[in-house]
Write a structure and sequence with these properties.
CATH architecture of the largest domain: 3-Layer(aba) Sandwich
Number of domains: 2
Number of strands: 13
CATH class of the largest domain: Alpha Beta
Helix content: 25-40%
Largest sheet: 7 strands, mixed
Bound molecules: pyridoxal-5'-phosphate
């Protein structure tokens, strides 16, 4: 019996998170025994160049020796105390240095918790009930945020989730991404009732779909005008696309997506941020950060309750502190460089094989959309027109050649600073064969 068959007997679908199953590409998921730098090793000892990076956290590559040493040292001092520690203060300070608009920070264990708490906080702050989210954005699996969600929900082709009450679903208004007219119409239709708009400031869970120029700036203005909070969900982009995430790119002017044409003013900050993935360095850790007046509404100072037995635990904070300390300019430069080289090589291989496609990027994150697109993919409806069968052929050919991609066309490729030229070349060498497979050649 394979490990997968054994897993299926004791774990629903054999996996503990649906995106890990090969649902949309077919076949059995690969079970991983260990990982190092840019490489994964399966339970049969096969080596793969990894482009999943644990779905984001592995910015420095897997099992970075300094991160592992910090976690080991922390483990020797005790796994969890249920009492405050110096490391939590240090990590909160490190987050605030990178994202000054996150004046106060609360740590939790998952991005799901962070987004759920941000929404509760927005409701507590405004006394309003409704939230607006964008179709195709993923904000974790809390009830109110599963409507038209990206990531695994998109991969499985589900409209949302069973088990969410109608009453809960009715409190989430879903609007197409990048559609300011629809947003303005929703804000008007529910005037005075919107607590918050939550967005991925560069969407990466419906495939990578960057904001149109000016979209985020107008989003900020419209939410301020109606007294709704703006929540930037940077669980995926935070500390990955740059030292302080997408917000940092917008602030530095390196990413002009914030500015309407000709507008060079710095954009006002969102009220709240959520972080996860990289900030925990591969351990279960996530965060909510934002304006002090809003954050101070959290218990024990304020009336908005939130708690966690393992929140800010010593192992996770050790991994987070060390990861952020090591994630210097050279790390981001290398990830950008590997990403750009790969995007070019993918485009070349697919064009050469005559496979219609579109490579779309936001910072170092990118997705290959298979299919004939007349323009950019700027929302979920267009992303859903991609040719998933071509992606599945491409995916399996890459896997056979020893390259592990995210097993869904709705996900970004995640690279790391540990992807040296040898690892990069192995991906590039696998591309022509996979391009031919995507085109249908045997
Ligand atoms: C991964 C992700 C989440 C959920 O985080 P978990 O740690 O998986 O709960 C939320 N928002 C975004 C944008 C994500 O990419």
């Amino acid at each position: 019996m394979s490990l997968y068959q054994r897993a299926c007997r004791v774990i629903p679908g054999g996996v503990n998170s649906p995106v890990r199953a090969f649902g949309s590409v077919g076949g059995e998921p690969v079970f991983i025994a260990r990982a190092s730098g840019p490489y994964l090793y399966d339970t049969d000892g096969r080596e793969y160049v990894d482009a999943v990076g644990s779905w984001g956290p592995a910015l420095l590559g897997h099992a970075h020796p300094e991160v592992v040493a910090a976690v080991q040292a922390a483990a020797a001092r005790g796994l969890s105390f249920g009492a405050p520690t110096a490391a939590e203060v240090e990590l909160a300070e490190a987050v605030r240095v990178r994202v000054p608009a996150a004046a106060k920070v609360r740590f939790v264990s998952t991005g799901t918790e962070a987004c759920m708490t941000a929404v509760r906080l927005a409701r507590g702050a405004t006394g309003r009930d409704l939230i607006i989210k964008f179709a195709g954005c993923y904000h974790g699996h809390s009830d109110g945020l599963l409507a038209a969600a990206g990531s695994g929900v998109a991969t499985q082709g589900l409209p949302g989730s069973a088990g969410v009450t109608e009453a809960t679903a009715a409190q989430t208004i879903v609007v197409p991404y990048n559609d300011l007219h629809a947003l303005a119409a929703a804000l008007e239709a529910y005037a005075g009732r919107i607590a918050a708009v939550i967005t991925e400031p560069a969407a990466a869970n419906m495939g990578v779909v960057p904001p149109r120029p000016g979209f985020n700036a107008l989003l900020r203005r419209l939410t301020s005008d109606v007294g709704a909070l703006l929540i930037y969900d940077e669980v995926l982009t935070g500390f990955r696309v740059g030292p302080s995430g997408w917000w940092g790119l917008e602030q530095s002017g390196g990413e002009r997506s914030n500015a309407a044409p000709g507008d060079t003013r710095p954009m006002p900050a969102p009220d709240l941020f959520t972080f996860g993935k990289v900030v925990g360095g591969g351990m279960p850790l996530a965060a909510i950060g934002g304006r002090a007046e809003v954050m101070d509404l959290l218990a024990p100072l304020g009336p908005v309750y939130q708690a966690g037995t393992l929140s800010g635990n010593p192992l996770a904070t050790a991994a987070g502190i060390t990861t952020l300390a090591l994630a210097d300019a050279a790390v981001y430069a290398r990830v950008d460089e590997v990403s750009a080289a790969l995007q070019a090589a993918i485009g070349e291989a697919l064009s050469h094989a005559g496979v219609p496609h579109l490579v779309q990027a936001a910072g170092s994150l990118f997705t290959v959309f298979f299919g004939d697109f007349s323009g950019p993919v700027h929302d979920y409806a267009i992303a859903q027109t991609q040719d998933s069968a071509a992606f599945a052929r491409f995916f399996h050919a890459m896997l056979d050649a020893g390259v592990a991609l995210p097993p869904s066309g709705y996900e970004a490729w995640f690279l790391s600073a540990a992807h040296d030229d040898a690892a990069l070349n192995r991906i590039v060498e696998a591309l022509p064969g996979a391009a031919a497979a995507a085109g249908g050649a045997r």
